[in-house]
Specification:
Bound molecules: adenosine-5'-triphosphate, magnesium ion
Distance between the termini of chain A: 27 Å
Radius of gyration of chain A: 17 Å
Largest interface: A-B, 34 and 34 residues
Oligomer: homodimer
Order of helices and strands of chain A: EHEHHHEEHHEHEHEHHHH
Structural class of chain A: alpha/beta
């Protein structure tokens, strides 16, 4: 049972694209997978075909007003989704005791036992929703794009991370995936070298190449495997799923 | 005196890249410009050369513990910056009365009178920091990238926007700029058509092309005009500054 928070407070680095396509690749490889949409914007939910994101979902679970079984939906064979729901932003606005940080962990504890992988799509922030995701997770996956501003955010992210590990009193394995990678750009190759220098053994072996089909498929409410099964996007996410299962790292 | 909130809750659409380079282009065109870094991640601040973002900045102004004059710094000729400061995330966590939403407006009211343009770089969220930016602004500029998930966010953004306009009891002109535009992609051209259909007369004439120099320049703490003054990035932002000054829209 691996519960993976897919997080990075930097915007637009491919968290949602990775959650959807890595999730579908793991399910296609025979694993039981559930995706959780932690982003009030509900892009994962919409990309999975729930275009209005109006029915109660994760928002109600975090408010302790329903159970996981009531809100989880099958979206593809072996792939389920807990939608964001319309009131997720309101949950994040709450102030108060630190028990609010454990709502997701407690809400999915039993359900997760029956899953091989649970992937949590995080919003680009470091507030209560991301804190819930980190406390519920058994490991973290950080998508990183090949540019300077993406790298900048990492030291701050690690700071937040250490803070959570201390509070949890157990370690939370951290791994990275290079996304939207354009190998022709010197900048991207430079970022890759920096990542391998600072985080040896922590960068997954496959990098996800920039590929317009990955940007197009949500518009058809399809994963890359349904939209363009023979393209680079499908090839890369299929390989990434194997890296994750076998813990295959970049050298 | 035009105070422009550069906002979009979608991540990675070029808010920071636009604030820095449009700001520098306006200053080079002879305008008095101040940039405000509203993002706790401080990427604009760091891109301007303040690599630690450790000194008090906007965070102190919003907490009413200093004045604008104390924290504003010149970064280039005619271009000043109010840095984010280390405690901006803490300000966003506060709960309480609606007077918190007017802190930026009140804090910069006098100072802004002496400026031609004030550009506010917003974080990818819809919380207290973005609300402050909208209440302080006289107009809004929304960068939009040429892909489906960016378009999805717009209807929700407009919802938030209408809400603020109602509370402010005056209209807040809204305009869009297409960023990271790759004209060879059918998806991007389709998004451009949709934008012109839904928002006629509201899309600025120049679109900013995808150009790796725009991603590289922050790594050298330079704007595009210092890094690659003859490239597409500089050309596009220079033209965008003229569009903004002359209110030149895309047909
Ligand atoms: N490998 C890729 N090739 C081409 N486009 C991509 C790729 N990965 C992501 N994109 C596109 O880039 C944009 C940003 O990706 P995505 O929304 O997945 O990032 P995110 O980190 O979830 O963003 P946010 O911080 O707003 O939640 C989307 O429009 C997406 O379709
Ligand atoms: N026109 C462009 N061409 C190439 N790269 C670009 C362009 N515009 C922005 N980028 C790069 O894309 C990434 C996202 O841009 P940027 O950080 O400005 O977006 P943002 O909307 O401010 O993101 P966030 O939501 O995280 O604040 C950055 O690494 C930036 O350097
Ligand atoms: Mg996302
Ligand atoms: Mg930014």
């Amino acid at each position: 049972m691996r519960i993976i928070a897919i997080m990075n407070h930097k915007g637009g680095v491919g968290k949602t694209t990775t959650t959807l396509n890595l999730g579908h690749a793991l399910a296609a490889a025979g694993k039981k997978v559930t995706l959780i949409d932690m982003d009030p914007q509900g892009h994962l939910t919409i990309s999975c075909g729930n275009s209005a994101n109006k029915e109660p979902g994760l928002d109600q679970l975090l408010m302790q007003q329903t159970t996981t079984e009531n809100i989880v939906r099958d979206v593809k064979p072996k792939l389920s989704l807990i939608s964001a729901g319309p009131k997720l932003a309101e949950f994040e606005q709450q102030k108060g005791d630190s028990s609010l940080a454990l709502r997701l962990r407690n809400g999915i504890k039993e359900y997760a036992q029956g899953q091989d992988f649970v992937l949590i799509d995080c919003p680009p922030s470091s507030g209560l929703l991301v804190i819930n995701s980190l406390f519920a997770a058994t490991e973290v996956l950080v998508p990183v794009t090949g540019d300077y501003l993406a790298l900048l955010g990492l030291s701050r992210l690690l700071g937040i991370f250490k803070h959570i590990e201390k509070a949890m009193q157990h370690s939370l394995p951290l791994q990275f995936v290079l996304t939207r990678f354009d190998g022709r750009r010197k900048l991207a190759r430079g970022i890759r070298t920096k990542m391998l220098t600072h985080f040896p053994g922590q960068v997954l072996a496959t990098f996800i190449r920039e590929s317009v089909a990955l940007a197009e498929s949500p518009g058809f409410q399809k994963s890359i495997f349904e939209y363009q099964p023979r393209g680079h996007g499908a090839e890369d996410y299929k390989a990434l799923a194997q890296d994750l299962i076998k813990k295959r790292m970049m050298k």
